[in-house]
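User: quick one, sequence for these tokens?
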């Protein structure tokens, strides 16, 4: 029995929303995971970045499966399973990122919240409207894969975001370097370079960083380089003074 025109239209609209959400989520997760892989301070942080990249690639693969399933009409039980797995990956990543943002408000909070809301709608569309779970014949294997992936992700999140920041000491090293002094006719320049480096394994926030310098008035003893004639004059003067002091009175 074919779908009525309104039902077909709703199917196309939901399919378009599904594809758009998967593509946007994949771009965000891959970009965020790539930054963690490059700039993370610990191996656990790099692993978390790798998991985000994996979730983004899964979401991108799921978007292709939705195109094959809903637009081309050539879907199979495997495309349905990949789509469901991609939506679950986005939901899990969104919940974890939303948990990280609970301690500090940023504009990214609305993006993670949007991913969670979209993932909940996508799950409702797949499981309730399309009965995707019935199309998957290998339900036990699928559930085992989802559970194993969720367990690894949750364990890494707890270790990298909760345990490691509280168990590892924060090590921040600050140094100051004074460069070569330069002087013109009226001003003396002293270049100073400050360096603040986080050498620990956990992130550190620098709030209200500032510095001040205090100078005192002093009389410069700087002189222009002396030429050969001035040195000869001083030598002759010193020699005459020695002879005068040694002469008998």
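Assistant:
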């Amino acid at each position: 029995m074919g779908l009525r025109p309104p039902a077909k239209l709703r199917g196309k609209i939901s399919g378009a929303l599904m594809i758009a959400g998967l593509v946007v989520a994949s771009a965000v997760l891959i970009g965020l995971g790539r930054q963690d892989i490059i700039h993370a301070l610990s191996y656990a942080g790099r692993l978390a970045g790798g998991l985000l990249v994996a979730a983004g690639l899964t979401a991108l693969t799921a978007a292709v499966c939705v195109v094959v399933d809903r637009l081309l009409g050539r879907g199979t039980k495997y495309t349905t399973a990949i789509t469901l797995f991609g939506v679950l990956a986005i939901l899990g990543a969104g919940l974890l990122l939303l948990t990280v943002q609970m301690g500090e408000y940023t504009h990214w909070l609305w993006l993670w919240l949007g991913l969670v809301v979209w993932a909940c709608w996508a799950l409702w569309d797949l499981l309730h409207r399309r009965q995707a779970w019935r199309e998957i014949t290998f339900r036990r294997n699928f559930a085992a894969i989802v559970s194993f992936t969720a367990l690894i992700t949750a364990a890494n999140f707890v270790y990298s975001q909760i345990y490691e920041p509280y168990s590892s000491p924060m090590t921040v090293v600050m140094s100051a370097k004074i460069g070569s002094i330069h002087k013109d006719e009226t001003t003396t320049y002293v270049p100073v370079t400050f360096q603040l480096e986080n050498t620990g394994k956990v992130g550190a926030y620098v709030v209200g960083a500032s510095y001040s310098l205090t100078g005192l008035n002093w009389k410069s003893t700087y002189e222009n380089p002396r030429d050969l004639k001035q040195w000869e004059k001083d030598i002759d003067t010193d020699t005459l003074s020695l002879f005068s002091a040694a002469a008998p009175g």
